[in-house]
Protein backbone atom coordinates (compact mmCIF):
# COMPACT_ATOMS: atom_id res chain seq x y z
CA UNK A 1 0.00 0.00 0.00
CA UNK A 2 1.22 3.51 -0.73
CA UNK A 3 4.46 2.69 -2.50
CA UNK A 4 4.25 3.26 -6.19
CA UNK A 5 6.11 0.54 -8.05
CA UNK A 6 8.02 2.22 -10.84
CA UNK A 7 8.80 0.13 -13.88
CA UNK A 8 12.15 1.51 -14.89
CA UNK A 9 15.35 3.02 -13.62
CA UNK A 10 15.21 6.81 -13.63
CA UNK A 11 18.86 7.06 -14.55
CA UNK A 12 19.41 4.54 -17.35
CA UNK A 13 15.84 3.46 -18.26
CA UNK A 14 16.55 -0.19 -17.48
CA UNK A 15 13.32 -2.10 -17.13
CA UNK A 16 12.53 -3.01 -13.53
CA UNK A 17 10.07 -5.75 -12.72
CA UNK A 18 8.22 -6.08 -9.44
CA UNK A 19 10.60 -8.80 -8.33
CA UNK A 20 13.73 -7.11 -9.65
CA UNK A 21 16.38 -5.79 -7.33
CA UNK A 22 15.79 -2.06 -7.24
CA UNK A 23 16.59 0.81 -4.95
CA UNK A 24 14.48 3.80 -3.97
CA UNK A 25 15.07 7.06 -2.12
CA UNK A 26 12.64 8.62 0.35
CA UNK A 27 10.98 10.45 -2.55
CA UNK A 28 10.54 7.15 -4.39
CA UNK A 29 13.01 7.88 -7.15
CA UNK A 30 13.79 4.38 -8.40
CA UNK A 31 17.11 3.01 -9.68
CA UNK A 32 18.51 -0.27 -10.85
CA UNK A 33 21.25 -2.02 -8.93
CA UNK A 34 24.04 -0.86 -11.25
CA UNK A 35 23.10 2.80 -10.99
CA UNK A 36 22.79 2.49 -7.23
CA UNK A 37 26.33 1.18 -7.06
CA UNK A 38 27.59 3.87 -9.40
CA UNK A 39 26.02 6.62 -7.33
CA UNK A 40 27.22 5.04 -4.08
CA UNK A 41 23.65 4.69 -2.77
CA UNK A 42 22.94 8.42 -3.13
CA UNK A 43 19.96 9.59 -5.17
CA UNK A 44 21.20 11.84 -8.02
CA UNK A 45 17.92 13.79 -7.92
CA UNK A 46 17.62 14.64 -4.25
CA UNK A 47 20.82 13.38 -2.57
CA UNK A 48 18.72 11.03 -0.47
CA UNK A 49 19.92 7.62 0.61
CA UNK A 50 18.92 4.75 -1.65
CA UNK A 51 17.54 1.68 0.06
CA UNK A 52 16.53 -1.71 -1.30
CA UNK A 53 12.95 -1.67 -2.56
CA UNK A 54 10.80 -4.24 -0.79
CA UNK A 55 9.54 -7.04 -2.95
CA UNK A 56 5.73 -6.96 -2.99
CA UNK A 57 3.82 -9.90 -1.66
CA UNK A 58 2.39 -11.73 -4.62
CA UNK A 59 5.63 -11.67 -6.57
CA UNK A 60 6.80 -15.14 -7.48
CA UNK A 61 8.88 -16.47 -4.56
CA UNK A 62 11.00 -18.65 -6.81
CA UNK A 63 11.95 -15.70 -9.00
CA UNK A 64 12.65 -13.68 -5.90
CA UNK A 65 15.01 -16.32 -4.55
CA UNK A 66 16.85 -16.47 -7.86
CA UNK A 67 17.40 -12.72 -7.84
CA UNK A 68 18.72 -12.78 -4.30
CA UNK A 69 21.38 -15.37 -5.09
CA UNK A 70 22.84 -13.41 -8.00
ZN1 LIG B 1 19.91 2.33 -13.88
ZN1 LIG C 1 15.44 11.02 -4.89
TrEMBL record:
Q: Which residues form the RING-type domain?
A: 9-47
Indicate yes or no for the key word Lyase. yes
Could you cite one Gene Ontology molecular function of this protein? lyase activity
Which keywords annotate this record? Answer: Lyase
Name one matching Pfam family.
DUF1272
Q: Which domain of life is it from?
A: Bacteria
Q: Which PROSITE patterns match?
A: ZF_RING_2 (PS50089)
InterPro entries, A to Z: DUF1272, Znf_RING
Record-given protein name: Alginate lyase
Task: Provide the species name.
Answer: Priestia koreensis
